[in-house]
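Protocol step 4 of 5: obtain the predicted structure for the target chain.
Materials: sequence only (see below). No template structures provided, no constraints applied. The aim of this step is simply to have a reference model before the mutagenesis design in step 5. Sequence pasted as it appears in the construct record:
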Amino acid sequence: MDILIINIRLLAGAREISPLLRGNALAELPGLSDAYLLIEHGTIADYGSMHELEINLPVLPKTIVDANNGIVFPSWCDSHTHLVFAASREDEFIQKLQGASYADIAAGGGGILNSAHCLNATSEETLYEHAAARLQQLSLAGTGAVEIKSGYGLTVSRKSFRSATNQACLPRALISLIRSSAEISFTAV
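Step 4 output (structure tokens):
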């Protein structure tokens, strides 16, 4: 399906050229004001200023989305995700904040070995269901791509590794549209 998004106040991440970014340049988020964005078959095909729309796209697609002066930005890429796990370690984070060492946490029954034990004691079906729910939450928060780390206790032959690799791929283009601080929506195309 082809989609044209029009009346974009700021098309975040749009650049005239795409140089290799390093250092302070990574903190800059360029954008194009008063823009349009064309998506063809799930891939960004064109973008530009609204005043160039008729010249650049004489034939418009059937589906047109009016951003109503909203902000459009590309989806996030989470390059370090432990998607498959059996038990949260939030309590260990609190212990670390309170000054506990990893050795203290392990001596109290927590830590990496406990994570591996919990994971190995959990069924593949449960691991898969929980991982799928986490992946859905990531998608709803604007993440379009994840790298799933193997985690503690996972090997290629283990059930939990299969739970990670069986997750459905997220859409190729996930566009985030912010109309106001109270209204944020994400559209997969």
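Step 4 remarks: The CA atoms of residues 43 and 173 lie 6 Å apart. The longest strand covers residues 63-74.
Proceed to step 5.
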